[in-house]
Amino acid sequence: MIYLVFSGLLWGTGGLTGRLLSLHSHLSPTAVAGYRLLIGGLFLVLFATATGHGRRPRGRTAWIRIGVVGALSAGFQACYFAAVALTDVSLATLLTIGAAPVLVVGFEQATGRRHLDTRVAATVSLAVVGLGLLVGEPPHGITMAHIVVGAAFAVASAAGFSAISLIGKSPVPGLNEVTMTGYSFTLGGLVLVAAVAPTTGVGFAPTPEAVSLLLAFGLVPTAIAYACYFIGLRDAAASTGTVTALLEPLTGTVLAVALLGDRLTAIGVAGAALLAVSVTAEAWQNRPRVSG
Questions:
Q1: Taking the chain, what is the end-to-end CA distance rounded to the nearest angstrom?
Q2: Which of 35, 66, 181, 206 is deepest in the core (most CB within 10 A)?
Q3: d(CA 63, CA 255)
Q4: Are 1 and 286 a contacting pair, CB within 8 Å?
């Protein structure tokens, strides 16, 4: 659980870092996502190589896993930013992060991986309600057509993240989490960068601020956070991972209020409290137990 909680907290720094990066680099959100995956993946590949943490992937099964996770990573990032472009950040975040635990719990229930008892249903419901209160209402002026299409992209993004969480539960012999994440994200980042280059472009002025923020974005909320997430999934249900991922908007909101001067309404405070309670309940339920 400590790995899953830590990953959620680190993901929360991505919002602040991403906002500052956009100001200094003027890159499109999709280009930022591509660089994020690419740099984060390269960090992990270099780490695994330098420390001997994992050998280079070998065998068809390992490369299939890397290809699948890489494609899903690129896909859910692209779908999320498509949802943002059609609606707004708050609605896209609400639908994407809120739908993920619901999708995973539904899959685990259908396949018998986890029984949907009252506690699980209450925790997920509490988390989704808290997220809705924290995010708040989307701004006016968005057409219904944009909302419908944007919602479809957001749910597709949630499905991609959910699939990664479920796949991460099944280890591949000889392929550890750090190596898998590194090669998968490098592949996914290359796909996104290549896709966005002919449209919005991937060039930017390499100022010290922009380069530092880009490296920090690739290292902290990407390389370290996702490596911790996949390590945490070894001994936790995929639905537990998606619930702890709700720490991302909670942490991002706290940082925005503390460092950027954003204001949080009373309803937002209530939502943050519900999110904190739901994540704490999930962590407590999955705490290590010592036999007497």
A1: 21
A2: 181
A3: 38
A4: yes
Share of the chain above pLDDT 70, in %: 90
CA separation for the pair 248, 269 (Å, rounded): 15
> Does the predicted TM-score (pTM) go above 0.90?
no
Q: CA 264 → CA 10, 98, 259, 275, 280, distances in Å?
A: 21, 20, 13, 15, 21
- Lookup result for tokens 């943490």: 53
- Integer-rounded Cα Rg, in Å, for the chain is 19
Which residues of the chain are modeled with pLDDT < 70? 53-54, 89-90, 113-117, 135-140, 260, 262, 264, 284, 286-292
Residue 107 near residue 168 (C-beta atoms within 8 A): no
9 is written with which tokens?
């907290």
Contacts of 148 (CB under 8 A, 6+ apart): none
Q: What is the dihedral of CA 255, 102, 146, 93, to 10 degrees?
A: 10
179 closest CA partner among 13, 11, 49: 49
Vertex 152: Cα angle to 147 and 156 (nearest 5): 145
